[in-house]
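JOB MANIFEST
job_type = single_chain_structure
chain_count = 1
residues = 301
[input]
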Amino acid sequence: MKYAVGIDVGGTNTRVALINEKYEIKERVQFGSDPKNPIKTLNQINDVIKGFGEKIEGIGISCPGPLDLINGIILTPPNLPGWHNFELTKELEKITGISVQLENDANLAGLAETVIGAGKGKKIVEFLTISTGVGAGLCIDGQIYRGAKGFAQEVANCILWKNGPSQGDLKKGSIESIASGTAITKRANDAGLEAAHAGEVYQLAQEGNETAAMIMEDAYEYLSSFIATLYGVLDPELFVLSGSVALKIPGFIEEIEKRAKEKVYDALKSNVKIVPAALGEDCGLIGAACLAFFDLDKKKK
């Protein structure tokens, strides 16, 4: 049995998993990331990998963006200030002696859903996660589409609403500022409501609160418009939605699909198929292992 390691580095925690060639997670370890000292975190990763006690064929790793995926460099992640312009791939390979592939988390989740999840067997799969933020990944023939410079599918800042809401460094009216869980909650609280997460805003809307209903309506309307646009541009066989907003708010995906069908050419309505992700929170780790095994296969050819 061959093994790869999937790693997810976040601003708070790092997860490391031992995954076999059947994409089964055999072991996993989580520890706190050091936001100021990447080498310390990489040494901890190496200790975990040694503790697995298996021969590792390759490592796939995701980190917060923005990333230079072509050269394996972390650029300027806001939650990892000490990691800016850090040559992650080079340094982790030096420490572990194992080949390393860097990718963003949404691309890896999309890859996992394409290979063994909801998009298995499909040629072109578009993945979108609606959670704290909005992330996307496109897989064609089971491979991640990165674009010319490695920034394909960086959709969070796509502008849909002139002078619309904004958050963080995002521009006004960006899709993440409208439809993400963070945005929905922020807009509700800014309007004087009390909500801890997007599900509570949805519940207030169900109870007849007009402000909450308007915020949810904006999320449905602009997200479905965005997805309809992606159908016009990409023509995917399947659209996979993930993230806490998409998966935990009742009827969310069905509502988005219904509205997206109304926004494409009538002849294309039957092409719009939006389904929930199948792999849950482990999809990024599994996608990282996919990347490592794919790289191994490529080197054999």
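[summary]
The chain has two domains: 3-107+281-300, 121-277.
The mean pLDDT is 94.
exit_status = 0
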